[in-house]
Amino acid sequence: MNPNLSQQVEAIADHLVAIRRLMRQAANIDLAALGLTEPQINVLRVLSMTNGLSIKQLSQQVGLAQSTVSGIVDRLKQRELLCIRVDEADRRVTRIYTTEIVESYLKHALPSQRLNLVAQALEAAQPDEREKMLQGLALLRKYMEQKGGVKS
Predict the structure, then answer these.
(1) What kind and span of H or E run contains 27?
(2) CATH architecture label of 38-98
(3) Domain residue spans of the chain
(4) Which residues contact 12 (CB under 8 A, 6 or more apart)?
(5) Who has greater pLDDT, 23 or 81?
């Protein structure tokens, strides 16, 4: 890879990571307004992607001690954001699930928070800049799908 292309790859990757972080922060601000801490938000985020984890598995996913995660789960359970069920295959194990409140939030409110940030950014841009953003992202996606063989 030539040096100029390598620099462009790094710059684009940095921009994509920053954009993703900004969108996640927009959602976290809303969750923080509900009185949730960053570790609680992380637990909910992990469970939203992989519901039904044990405390041990959840601890590994969020990178915190089991006792810490157990306390977080207890607090979220008290707020009716999580529920705990006995594993049907192994009754010694309990599994943690998000409740309907969380699922509804993730399905409806969270996407609108992220879209709101994008909408605000686009409103601040000039019409020709918005068109350039859209075209650039569409082109990047097109070539990534062609080379990666993965389509969304």
Answers:
(1) helix 3-33
(2) Orthogonal Bundle (1.10)
(3) 38-98
(4) 140
(5) 81
What is the token pair recorded at 123?
């409103």
The whole-number average pLDDT for the span 136-142 is 93
Distance CA 81, CA 100 (A): 8
β-bridge mates for residue 83, sequence order: 97
- The residues that bridge with 98 in the sheet, in sequence order, are 82
Q: To 10 degrees, the CA torsion angle through 14, 20, 22, 24?
A: -150
DSSP 3-state assignment of 84? strand
Residue with the larger pLDDT of the pair 124 and 108:
124
Hey, what are 40's tokens?
A: 């609680």
User: Distances in Å between the alpha carbon of 121 and those of 17, 30, 114, 136?
Assistant: 17, 18, 11, 16
pTM of the model: 0.60
Residue type, 100: E
* Six-digit token string for 126: 């000039």
